[in-house]
Every structure is written in structure tokens, then in C-alpha cells.
Design brief:
The protein is of the alpha+beta class. It folds into two domains: 79 residues, no CATH class; 144 residues, Immunoglobulin-like, CATH 2.60.40. Helices cover 17% and strands 31% of the residues. It contains five helices and 14 strands. Helix 3 packs antiparallel against helix 4. The longest helix is centred in the C-terminal third of the chain and has 10 residues. The two termini are 22 Å apart. It binds calcium ion (CA) (3 copies). One calcium ion (CA) binds next to loops.
């Protein structure tokens, strides 16, 4: 309790809002997009889909087969914008090799692609123009997991990418019960004072980065004021 009193004593009551970028490039060819967007999808020959989208972070143009990290609770659409190359979303049973940005489908068997395609298949296939088919995917907690996208043309194996569906991070939720409350004070202090390893040992299923309430990418004393502001104005 001593730590709590000390920390609470440091803070003012100034209003604070957490800045959330919509798209964050977390690694080369890996984009976390925390709010629903519309992807328009072109292609570079039979080597890659080219994804385009815009959000509060700006406009992303012709990203070749990016890995997408998408958030539960958001709706994303996927639309082909030029002829040929049906875009399908599959589960992680699709045989795929490679790494972010350079995945390749490891089968040319259409039945294997169809078996992995999410159902109803028609809902998870964006047929090429001139149809107006698109995939509209509203993510729920049951969708958390790993997926792929690929071209349904069986021999276009290089047209492939990964999708990871995750629960949105909740800054300040240090006991990962889905809300920010007074139960988060002890684990917040633990993360701040004792560090990541000690925190993760005590809360193995929770996200240490939730302590970065200031959103500057690191956990530190800059997070105390915004954390307390969240507690007072959740
Ligand atoms: Ca590719
Ligand atoms: Ca909590
Ligand atoms: Ca911080």
C-alpha cells in the first residue's frame, strides 16, 4: 500500500486521453490495424496481392502481401479491384511456408484451399471485378487466432499472406480482466517498479505493454499520471 499512496500522491487530475494510432507497423510487412478499414486489393502479377487502405494514420498504398494484425470488435472489408485473382481467407490449416511479407502457399490442390477457406466460402471469397463481391469480416472473441489469405488460382502460390486476430489491448488493464479499475493498481505498480519479468511471472496471461498508458512505447514513470487519470475517468 505504501507504493500506492506514494504514486497517487504524485499525480494531478488533468484530463488525459489515450492517443491511438489506427495502423502501427510493428515489424517489416506487419501492420496492426486497430480500427475497421476497407482494404482494396490489387495485385503484382501472380507474385503478390497489393493491399491499400486509409485510416487515421494515413494512407497505405500497394503493400505486397502484408501480415495483418486485426482487432476483435472491428469490421474489416476486403475487395478486389481488378480482374482475376480471387482473394480468399483461410484458417491456419492451409499449408504455408515463408515469413512475413514473403509467404507462399505450399499446396496447389484446390480442394485443400477450399477445405481451409472460412465458411461460408462465398462469404470469404472476394471475387474479381466486374463482380462487386467483397469480404466483410466482423471479428468476435471466437475469431482470435491465426489465418492466411491467398489466391484461389491454384498455381498462384506466391500470393499469400497472414492475418492474426487479437483482442484489442486495453492500456491500464494490468490484471487483464477486461476493464480498468482499482484491481489494476497493484499489478501496475509491480510492472513499473519491479519490471517486466517479475510482472509476467505474476500475471503470465496478461500484457505488460498495457502499462504503457502514455502510449510512447515504453513503460515508465510517464505512465503514472495517465494511469491514474484512467482510474478516475475510465
Ligand atoms: Ca507474395
Ligand atoms: Ca483490470
Ligand atoms: Ca509510457
Amino acid at each position: 500500500m505504501t507504493k500506492h499512496v506514494t504514486i497517487l500522491g504524485l499525480v494531478g487530475l488533468s484530463a488525459f486521453s489515450v492517443a491511438l494510432a489506427d495502423t502501427t507497423m510493428v515489424a517489416p510487412s506487419v501492420y496492426e490495424i486497430d480500427a475497421g478499414v476497407d482494404f482494396s486489393i490489387g495485385n503484382s502479377g501472380a507474385s503478390s496481392f497489393l493491399l491499400n487502405w486509409s485510416d487515421g494514420s494515413g494512407t497505405f498504398t500497394d503493400e505486397p502481401d502484408p501480415t495483418l494484425i486485426l482487432h476483435v470488435g472491428q469490421t474489416y472489408t476486403f475487395m478486389r479491384t481488378t480482374g482475376s485473382h480471387p482473394f480468399v481467407i483461410t484458417d491456419d490449416t492451409l499449408p504455408v511456408t515463408g515469413t512475413d511479407g514473403s509467404y507462399a502457399r505450399a499446396t496447389t490442390d484446390g480442394a485443400v484451399i477450399d477445405a481451409a477457406t472460412l465458411t461460408p466460402i462465398a462469404d470469404f471469397t472476394a471475387d474479381p471485378a466486374p463482380t462487386t463481391d467483397q469480404i466483410t469480416w466482423t471479428l468476435t472473441s471466437g475469431d482470435v487466432g491465426d489465418y492466411f489469405y491467398t489466391c484461389r488460382v491454384t498455381f498462384h502460390t506466391s500470393m499469400a499472406g497472414a492475418i492474426h486476430v487479437v483482442e484489442p489491448s486495453l492500456p491500464g488493464d494490468m490484471d487483464c480482466d477486461g476493464v480498468v479499475g482499482f484491481g489494476d493498481i497493484n499489478p501496475f505498480v509491480l510492472a513499473l517498479v519491479d519490471g517486466q519479468a517479475t510482472y509476467e511471472a505474476a500475471f503470465p496471461d496478461c500484457d505488460y505493454q498495457n502499462a504503457d498508458v502514455s502510449g510512447n512505447g515504453s513503460v515508465g514513470f510517464d505512465d503514472i499520471n495517465p494511469f491514474v487519470a484512467l482510474l478516475l475517468n475510465p
